[in-house]
Amino acid sequence: MSYLQLLGLVAPETIVVITALVVLGLDLLILREQPLRHRFWMGAAFAAFGCVLAAAWLLFINSPTHPAGEVSGALPLLRGMFVDDGLVRLVKVALLGLTVFTIAISMESSFTGHVGEYLALILLATVGMMFLVSAEDILMIFISLELTSLSLYILTAFNKRNVKSAEAALKYFLFGGMSAAFTLFGLSLVYGLSGSTGLREIAAKLEQPALDPLLVAAIVMTVIGFGFKVAAVPFHLWAPDAYQGAPTPSAAFIASGSKVASFFVFAKVMMLGFAHAGGSGSWHAYAPGWLPVLAVVAVASMLLGNLAAIAQSNVKRLLAYSAIAHGGYALLGILANGPSGVTSLVYYVVTYGLTVLGAFGVVGLVEERAGEARISDFAGLGRREPLLAFCMMIFMLSLAGIPPLAGFFGKFYVFTAAVGGAKDLGLLWLVIFAIAMSAVSLYYYLQVLKQIYVVPVSAESGSLGAPISSRIVLAVIAFGVVALGCAPDFLVGRLLAAIKLAAL
């Protein structure tokens, strides 16, 4: 493979990196003396343009490589290091779309004067996520995880005016460092057992009738490492503080983009690398492997996430515990352990990411006015800001799984995949539990909507004065949530077609 071919292969990532450098240079050298709002708008425009250009390259300019992810004539070094197929491209486009929306809800922010650095870090985190979803090599997966994580740690601490931001970033960093150690040690055991770093080669060399004790240890450590990235119980302790203390756009990005990338690569590692060590989590048909481990983690995440969310008085913490519960639902897609599971998982995390991004956008506008994001601060929002209240209603009901919104079909697909993916409906017990927990979640989402539409507004409360641009962005996100719910096949059909070619 020539350097020109290699550059064409990683052109979208290169475009985003160049955009990050341009935005940083533009802000430092040209716009530094301009008003903050003008700097944010100019920087956001350039950053969004770079993401749109990268997405256009993925969709229209360069055709995918071989279905199995290997480039014709590629060097052995590239086998598994960088996979470029239709499924990976769809996930990358989704990541770029979530990045554009994150940048859009940041344009009217005032939490920092370091605009160029902030936007550059968002773009670099996106590059890390793009490399992460392209990787089928444990070394590349770890490097990409660290690039993403380091950017997110800094973004969490970006509000220097709020001491909670620094505290949240420190907790996030310490837990992240510990999870990275578990991940690295687990993957090193995998390498020692298989002598390979490629996931498909690892699966072929670890095929054996009985589980090696070292392989069991490797599976447990890998689950611990990725469990932290997706905020699954009991590795979730960083999430509530990070979501509450981080600047709202940063928290939105952590809850959306990083979840999409982390769940996708988590599914890859489990389904490809540990393909012959799955075992069974079916009722009365238990067999040791990673499937029963993930089943226990999913139950714990759904239970603790939903019950803890009921007790929250801060909407950002409520969304954090909600994210933990949604992580449990998403794990059902991995437990399905097949093409239908991957399809349902990607649809679920993409629609969830879009929905929670919009919810954080509304929360950020209320927080700008009230100083905090208590549930009581949303009182009378339906009268003060009818459009924002309507958007928040769509986001909350979608998170609760109410039809015909995207959240309903996301849960429907992962539940169906989990039941159909196990023999003799063995995971039906887990799906019934997930449905029960979804009913519980409706309570705390309705608590927010009760404040918005039922609790009377005080006489001194006026309009939030939300900028027109923010209202338009949130309305577009809300429309996307409704559209993906009313026409789920727009995404699901493309995912199914891509998975057939990707041989995942």
Quick take:
With 504 residues, the chain is mainly α. The protein is 73% helix and 0% strand.
Tell me what the structure shows.
The chain has 504 residues and is an all-alpha fold. The chain has one domain (3-502). It contains 20 helices and no strands. It has helices spanning 3-9, 11-29, 36-61, 86-106, 115-134, 138-156, 163-194, 199-205, 213-229, 239-245, 248-273, 290-310, 315-336, 339-370, 381-384, 386-400, 406-421, 428-453, 468-486, 489-502. The longest helix has 32 residues, at 163-194. The protein is globular. The two termini are 25 Å apart.
Percentage of residues assigned to helices:
over 70%
> Number of helix segments?
20
Low-confidence stretches: 65-77
Query: For the residues shown, what is the average pLDDT?
Result: 88
Distance between the termini: 25 Å
Beta-sheet strand percentage? under 5%
Question: For the report, how would you describe the main beta sheet?
Answer: none
Annotation, overall tally of beta strands: 0
What is the chain-wise order of helices and strands?
Answer: HHHHHHHHHHHHHHHHHHHH
C-alpha geometry: globular
Q: Tell me the domain tally.
A: 1
What labels would you give this structure?
504 residues, mainly alpha, 20 helices, 0% strand, globular
